[in-house]
């Protein structure tokens, strides 16, 4: 793999999407009759799966750059905080 390119994991991205949707269905059970099924009632467990898969994808794509000092860990940290803070402020402004 070229260290400057990021690899896309289609299967993992699909699982992340399914996990995110199951968490959403868990929280909006009053609008969807399907959420009374066991798989949707345990949707809160998909949060862990989502974070584990996200952590794997991030570590795989950035781990070698950080380890070789091509991208300082502080730069990666500030980029992540910048994304989180911008999403936080855009969502909390409503």
Number of helices: 4
What is the quaternary state of this protein?
single chain
Taking pLDDT < 50 over at least 5 consecutive residues as the criterion, the unreliable ranges are none
Beta-strand percent range: under 5%
Radius of gyration, CA atoms, in whole angstroms: 17 Å
Order of helices and strands: HHHH
Q: What level of helicity do the residues show?
A: 55-70%
Question: From the helix content, strand content and strand pairing, which structural class follows?
Answer: mainly alpha
Amino- and carboxy-terminal Cα gap: 42 Å
Shape: flat
Strand tally: 0
Instruction: Sketch the major β-sheet.
Output: none
Report the mean per-residue pLDDT as an integer.
Answer: 77
Architecture overview:
- With 94 residues, the protein is mostly helical.
- It has a domain at 10-69.
- 68% of the residues lie in helices and 0% in strands.
- It is built from four helices and no strands.
- It has helices at residues 10-27, 38-41, 46-67, 73-92.
- The longest helix is centred in the middle third of the chain and has 22 residues, at 46-67.
- It is flat.
- The termini are far apart.
- The mean pLDDT is 77.
Features:
about 90 residues, mainly alpha, about 70% helix
Helix and strand layout, with pairings?
Blueprint: H1 10-27, H2 38-41, H3 46-67, H4 73-92
Write a brief caption for the model.
By secondary structure, the chain is an all-alpha fold. The protein contains four helices and no strands.
